[in-house]
Amino acid sequence: MQEDAQLGTVIALISLSDHDSGANGQVTCTLTPHVPFKLVSTFKNYYSLVLVSALDRESVMNYEVVVTARDRGSPSLSTTASVSVEVADVNDNAPAFAQPKYTVFVKENNPPGCHIFTVSARDADAQENALVSYSLVERRVGERALSSYVSVHAESGKVYALQPLDHEELELLQFQVSARDAGVPPLGSNVTLQVFVLDENDNAPALLLPGPGGGAGALSQLVARSVSAGHVVAKVRAVDADSGYNAWLSYELQPAAGGARSPFRVGLYTGEISTTRALDEADAPRQRLLVLVKDHGEPALTATATVLLSLEDSGQAPKASSRASTGAAGAEAALVDVNVYLIIAICAVSSLLVLTLLLYAALRCSAPPSEGACGPGQATLVCSSAVGSWSYSQQRRQRVCSGEGPPKADLMAFNPSLPQGPISTDTLSVRILQVYQNSGEGQDFLMELNQQVFEMLITPEGRLRSRCLLLSLLLLVAWEAGSGQIHYSVPEEAKHGTFVGRIAQDLGLELAELVPRLFRVASKGRGDLLEVNLQNGILFVNSRIDREELCGRSAECSIHLEVIVDRPLQVFHVEVEVKDINDNPPVFPVKEQRVLIYESRLPDSLFPLEGASDADVGSNSVLTYKLSSNENFALDVKTNSDDTTQIALVLRKSLDREEAPEHNLFLMATDQGKPELTATAQLLVTVLDVNDNAPSFGQSEYEAKIFENSDNGTIVMRLNASDRDEGANGEFSYSFNSLVPPMVSNQFRIDPNTGEIVIQGNLDFENINLYKIRIDATDKGHPPMAGHCTILVKILDKNDNVPQIALTSLSLPVREDAHFGTVIALISVSDLDSGANGQVTCSLTPHVPFKLVSTFKNYYSLVLDSALDRESVSNYEVVVTARDGGSPSLSATASVSVEVSDVNDNAPTFAQPEYTVFVKENNPPGCHVFTVSARDADAQENALVSYSLVERRVGERALSSYVSVHAESGKVYALQPLDHEELELLQFQVSARDAGVPPLGSNVTLQVFVLDENDNAPALLLPGTGGGAGALSQRVARSVGAGHVVAKVRAVDADSGYNAWLSYELQPAAGGARSPFRVGLYTGEISTTRALDEGDAPRQRLLVLVKDHGEPALTATATVLLSLEDSGQAPKASSRASTGAAGAEAALVDVNVYLIIAICAVSSLLVLTLLLYAALRCSAPPSEGACGPGQATLVCSSAVGSWSYSQQRRQRVCSGEGPPKADLMAFSPSLPPFPGSENAGKLQDVDHCTEVGPFILILKYLRRNFIIL
Q1: Mind telling me which residue stretches traverse the membrane in this protein (predicted)?
Q2: Does position 1192 have pLDDT exceeding 60, yes or no?
Q3: % helix / strand / coil in the chain, to the nearest 5?
Q4: How far is CA 423 from CA 415, 419, 426, 428, in A?
Q5: pLDDT at 484
């Protein structure tokens, strides 16, 4: 049965019967409760099992439907039949994933094609409906397709990475995998995968060296020899593209060549290079330091920075000629590169302008004539006639077919002169044979209900008879249409193959459709008696039919057949009457009948005799009797009101026992069948004497068996004593002997007339299983005489006692570390029944770690059979079932609740082995930084977790001076403000221990990263005696040229990262005077912007603002005092070189200005050209046919009608891509012509182009075709 079957679907056809009559034969049918089916009565004793509620194969895939048929007799009898209904699957369940989202961690740089995860979806359906295939839900990941990163195996659901993943490029790859089944239609669902790409140490540190390029190979720095120990002279900055430990950098100074000890050191995490002692004259004037920058990855990657330090005396002015020349050359090269880019831009824009003009000219010259520019042009004449016309003006036709049937077109044709089609009707033929009134015939008419053509004899006796005929005809037709039952007859004992009827023809079925529609015949009881030949549709006898065996003594005997055909399901009822033949002779119940007659009986006395019976029916069963000739007896035959025959022997004359004690007679019975069959019985007449015989029993001792708990009134035995005397001498009564004890007479009673011994108490085998009863039979003669017998009543055991279970000892609770074989409980069972009914077996609930061990008979021990784990199962409800061996078996259950007590076998566990915490420096003391939480699977005190620090030293101080942990909550507090410059990483362990005995514990590692805050302002490093004077003094010769470095401001910042990245800025002079000096943004070098002259003040006071990049930025101000001095020496070559470089730079700047002007001019010309073209296109009036359909022309017509094509919606946008397409139109010949002869055949179309402003068109064109910089 399909699980989506419609309500009311017929599942099975059920017929039932009861051979009894009246209320005893009235049968009602019921079903098992709580099933989605019901019984619908179609005919008497015929039911259909139909569906009444929805099926769900995933909930119940098979129903065992029990049909119970119960009659209305008393007591009621019933029978059952089981129908197994299997529910077939339909695709009504989509594949389902266990989770809506999965998180996957994959290390970067994985090999291509590696397996990273497996998705699995479960489909509750069956077979192909449960066959799941997987696919990616495609999307874009940045600029690339998702399928270029990962793929999924369609069958296994394995997800593969197609290329190495890069954490620096893609930290999270989120996508969906679709699971679809193979059902029709297929159902599917999606699951989200979050693939986190874990960082690997695959990027070496990158150096950030200040300078024009920002990445020069060496860092040069001037250092005054006067600086003291600890003075910061330079700082190496580096970054790492990785993250976490892989990006945590440390700095290390490489030892100098030759093993000489360097007077400098580098900060491990800051990269600051400082002096370890005061510099002296022995130190080399040029120091080359190699700083190794190393990350903390596995394996560690490194980079090397070269730092060149020039040691200078504090009074010496550093030369700058070479530096100025180098800077000028760099600026000139940069300007040349800009010129090249500008020239390329001019050429590109100019070429675009020329191509635009050429394209416009080509379009204007090649445009077709305006007539029909947007229309279809002239259509071609194909056919015409006087009654209609066809016009077709469409240049292109497209048709899309959808749905299950043929495609639907909009073309319709009407034919006013076509005749109506034939009407199919079903006609019932009735043949009426008319007979004249004077013929004397035709007073009645007979209708054969199973014929297709009916013949009736009627007489024209007026209007009343005609109405009766009409009503009879209508009733006949209605009965034939509504009845589905056909009647046949066949004699019993017919040979195999005997023709019964043309069942297919009579049911109105075609022979060709018998096999395709699964024609079959079903019959209750003997289904092999009749069969149908599927080739000719004839019902024939298949095996011997015995009417007496089939129907017994029933007057009517029929075989009820159900003819079932499918597609669609139809049920026909066919009745085959089995006609009786005289095949059974009369039968007497006994071959010899004994008649006892007192010798004192008078003539004409009647003595009833047992008549014969005939299994046939009708006249074949009517019997006549004949008695053999004699002088003492005659035969009396009477027919009762219920058509039964009663025969008796009539005494003609008195008997004399002493003369003839016995008479032998013969009784013959003959039926009225053809041929006649007879039977003979012998009558033995015994003449009885007076009361000279006591009653006698057949045997002196009888034995009776009866089950215990039998109902009161149940007959134990019926005694049948006899007395050879006649009359009162032969009448006797039954009674218990006076010696019978009261306990017997209380349980039994005897009927004095019939001798029936019945139960009147409760019999219990377990109390008394044998009763011995003495019975007396006393006649009524004078003197009375008595006969005796003994009855042994054995009580049979019934399984009426449920086994008893007793728990005699319990050892609870059970420790979870208890050993195998530990006794949990002692159990005893008993059953009061005997034999197999008292044999008891014991069993346990399955899947429990216990078993029953038999110690003695009916005694068991409940022992431990497998290991206990309280954390998995803390309590077991063990059900002990005791079942006896009776039929039906009785059972009893007892529940033992076994509680498992806890032992401390689980240490507290943390969710992760390591936690990473980020805390900003300068936190308030006592602030909460993190909470650790461990879970202990044990119970009570074994699960009580306390937390503590694993003490260690952090530098010179104890860990407990930095942090503390709350013993109960696991909250970690910072006890003092943390300083990033002092401590960047605080790594420690927290221990979690339970309160068990012995206690168990575990540790978790916390990595507390102290995040840098911009809490340190830049510190100035000014050379001098103190190394920290408030101003830097420097003498400068007036003869220096532009770009000459006259001084350098040095500063350091104790912070890190952006907070330590310094920039230098020259504050404007007081009064707005333009200073001839400038400062390097990141180098701090002060250089001249031009050559100095006599107009410059001899003392220059410069304020240099040093600012970091933190939020908010912190600053420091350095004061530089420059003294300009005249020099008698000739200008240095460096000054001339600087002047030449400055001139070349100015010339290049002028060229750049001209190139920029040229670019702007050409671009403006291009834009104006495009604007002008767009304005002309949009302001020009539309030409004829630009938005219309053009001229339509007569195509075809005929004399039978016209074709019309009507389009309900048309949208047209006018563009230059080609002529628009019109539709097929038709005009009826009866329509009036259009006014004007020249326009009579034209097709008018009312399409309009939407007017759009030229400005909007220009903007849309520019947005689509250009990128405006």
Answers
A1: 340-363, 1153-1176
A2: no
A3: 15, 35, 50
A4: 19, 12, 10, 16
A5: 52
CB 1134 within 8 A of CB 320: yes
- Name the token pair of 788: 């005796």
Structure-token pair, residue 89: 């699957």
Residue 109 is given by DSSP the state S
- Strand, helix or coil at 1166? helix
User: How far apart are alpha carbons 288 and 218 in whole angstroms?
Assistant: 10
> Would you say how long the chain is, in residues?
1269
The residue type found at 1178 is C
Distance of CA 207 to the CA centre of its chain: 56
List beta partners, residue 626.
668
Average pLDDT over residues 74-93: 92
- CA dist 634 → 588, 607, 640 (Å): 19, 10, 20
DSSP 833: S
Among 19-28, 175-184, 190-199, name the one with the lowest average pLDDT: 19-28
User: How far apart, in whole angstroms, are the C-alpha atoms of residue 1145 and residue 1089?
Assistant: 13
CA distance 1004 to 945: 14
Rounded average pLDDT over 1187-1206: 40
Provide long-range contacts, Cβ within 8 A and 24+ apart, for 733-736: 733/777, 733/778, 733/780, 734/775, 734/776, 734/777, 735/775, 735/776, 735/778, 736/773, 736/774, 736/775, 736/776
d(CA 1176, CA 1258): 11
Calculate ∠ Cα 553-554-560, nearest 5°.
130
The end-to-end CA distance of the chain, in Å, is: 71
Q: Nearest 5°: CA angle at 804, between 802 and 810?
A: 155
| Distance from C-alpha of 1008 to C-alpha of 929, rounded to nearest angstrom | 9
Encode burial over 147-157: b for 16+ CB neighbours within 10 A, e otherwise: eebbbbeeeeb
Give the span between the Cα atoms of 878 and 290, in whole angstroms: 78
Whole-angstrom CA distances from 1118 to 212, 315, 1122 are 23, 19, 13
The pLDDT of residue 179: 96
Range 1177-1199 average pLDDT: 48
Whole-angstrom distance, CA of residue 241 vs CA of residue 168 = 7
Least Cα distance to 314 among 1019, 1232, 1047 occurs for 1047
Half-sphere exposure of 271 (CA within 13 A, CB side): 30
Is the CA virtual torsion 209, 214, 215, 216 positive or negative? Answer: negative
Cβ pair 711, 658 in contact under 8 A: no
Q: Do the Cβ atoms of 713 and 686 come closer than 8 Å?
A: no
Q: Tell me which amino acid residue 601 is.
A: R
3-state DSSP assignment of residue 128: helix
Of the candidates 488, 505, 584, the residue with the CA atom closest to the CA atom of residue 541: 488
Kindly write down the DSSP assignment for every residue of 528-539, as one continuous string.
TSEEEETTTTEE
Alpha-carbon span 733 to 746, nearest angstrom: 20
- Cis before 368 (ω within 30): no
DSSP code per residue over 565-617: ETTTTEEEEEEEEEE--S----B-S-SEEEEEEETTPPTT-EEEEPPPB-SS-
Strands (E) located in 44-142: 46-51, 62-71, 78-86, 96-97, 101-107, 114-118, 121-122, 132-137, 140-141
- Report how far residue 1149's alpha carbon sits from residue 1138's, in angstroms, rounded to the nearest whole number: 17
Phi first, then psi, for residue 475 (nearest 5°) are -60, -40
| Residue for token pair 């043949």 | 431
Whether the pTM exceeds 0.70: the reply is no
Q: Do 439 and 1234 contact (CB within 8 A), yes or no?
A: no
Q: How far apart are CA 231 and CA 582, in angstroms?
A: 142
pLDDT at res. 405: 40
